[in-house]
Amino acid sequence: MASLNVGSLGEYIREQRRHAQYSLRQLADAAGVSNPYLSQIERGLRKPSAEILQQIAKALRISAETLYVQAGILDEREEAGLELRAAIFADSLINERQKQVLLAVYDSFLKENAHLGAHDEAEAGTSAGRTKDDPEPRGGTPNAHHR
Q: Which residues does 9 contact at the CB level (< 8 Å), separation at least 6?
């Protein structure tokens, strides 16, 4: 697990709070944490738990995973798709239900592609008794050159 990067995490939360046009007190109330505690998080003086980060993310309408990456709880490589999720959550032109529908469609595509990728890899190794390193046959019947 990566170390907790509380300084940049606090700055990131402050930036997101300002983008959402929340005062410190408003975000603290929406996230269910105390005003002084949130202030300490923003200033990099406190290390919030994953649960507190999730509450803050929900109040800011951003993905908790985005905050986990900022905090060093998730590795950067696990961030795939998080920018898209963050953009969807931040979009003020669509409502919450529409955001959830978009995310559900995106997740279904990821699952489908993961399933197809695993299926394609298995097929590549067993198709017509070939290994994935064997060349593809060149059309016609298998014995077309033996007349």
A: 41, 44, 48, 67, 70, 71, 72
The C-alpha angle 5, 59, 107, rounded to 5 degrees, equals 80
Q: 13-26: buried (b, 16+ CB within 10 Å) or exposed (e) per residue? A: bbebbeebebeeee
Angle between helices 24-31 and 35-42 (to 10 degrees): 110
Query: Under DSSP, is residue 46 helix (H, G, I), strand (E, B) or coil?
Result: coil
Tens of pLDDT, residues 124-140: 555 545 444 455 545 44
Report the distance separating Cα 32 and Cα 47, nearest Å. 16
Q: What is the pTM of this model?
A: 0.52
Do you know the residue count of the chain?
A: 147
Q: How many CB atoms lie within 10 A of CB 61?
A: 17
- Kindly report the number of other CB atoms within 10 A of residue 88's CB atom: 19
Q: What is the DSSP letter of 2?
A: P
